[in-house]
Amino acid sequence: MNILITAPSLDTKNNVSGISSVVKSILIAEDQNYIYFLVGKADQQKRNIFWLLRQFFLPLKLIYSLLVNKIDIVHLNAPLDTLAIVRDFIFLKIAKLLGVKVLLHLHGGKYLKTIPESKWLYLYLKHYFNSADHIVVLSQLEKNLLLRNYDLKIDDITPLENCVSIPDIKHKSSYEKIRIIFLGRFVARKGLFNILEAFSKLIIKRSDFEFYLYGAGPEEEILITQFSHLLSDTFQFKGIVSGNVKSEALLQADIFLLPSHYGEGLPIALLEAMSYGVVPVVTDDGSMATVVMDKVSGYIVEKDNSVMLAAIIEEIIEKFRNNEVENLQNKIIETIKDKYDCKNYSTKLAAVYKAIAL
Length: 358
Known about the structure:
The protein is an alpha/beta fold. The chain is built from 14 helices and twelve strands. The strands form two sheets. The chain has a six-stranded parallel β-sheet with strand order 2-1-3-4-5-6, sandwiched between helices. Strands 9-8-7-10-11-12 form a six-stranded parallel β-sheet, sandwiched between helices. The longest helix is centred in the N-terminal third of the chain and has 20 residues, at 49-68. The mean pLDDT is 91.
């Protein structure tokens, strides 16, 4: 089966993207013939005239690829934000006009939980979703939201959780200083400025923690400046990491922070951190709360609440100091092993392809 699959750059030097991580794991499968189709922009790329020209030619490039490669299914990896919705809807319609089946793989976004205020945008989204041959979402929760908010058919949606490879070894911190990390794109909606505010409260009370910032993004310069000013030597900016360097970073980490305001799906970085036994602190955004049960397999913090975030971080630090964290870490690892191991992912996705192709 020939499958065209869309994603931003798969090179972590150009793009820090959960979608890219998911697609890289999909492309490993040998039971399908995948044709990778580049969409989106690099992290440091500006939306200038050259970017605009590239967007103009993308539909033509798609038509060429569909015809030359004799594509059976287009696998659209689609975040629900405005620009991506417009682009992917055009791609979807092109594929359908050429008689190609379309799998719409949704990766979070602000219109998943929140219905647009605009009636026209709402109707547009309903038409967008109903135009696909099938929809894949990241959890049963997301399926329920689509069914409730957009009046879709229950058999047209399949939950397929993101996955990670389970490491053979778990966390090995020395606990001299509790290492707190953020790993991902540096954008305000990820809650990075809430982390900064939380640390400004925490640093007054204690100094037995350190913060490591991994990733890249548009807010990079201001975040590095402010975290450096606040935390001094207990702050480290490490940039983009992958492979063994990322594994070592997770191996040395104690607490993972992702207090997002909106736009999350099921972040690969969260699953990776948990697979090493790193304690996650996240908001109830996207499908994150389907993985993290509060005080069972991590902690849930209210959105935009830096006071609560500081209190939770301090509570976890105390658990490390009192050697009360082992059961929590074991539960975190068990959660990932039970439901988010990549061993079963390609089999489930292949079944979706087969159903669409019939």
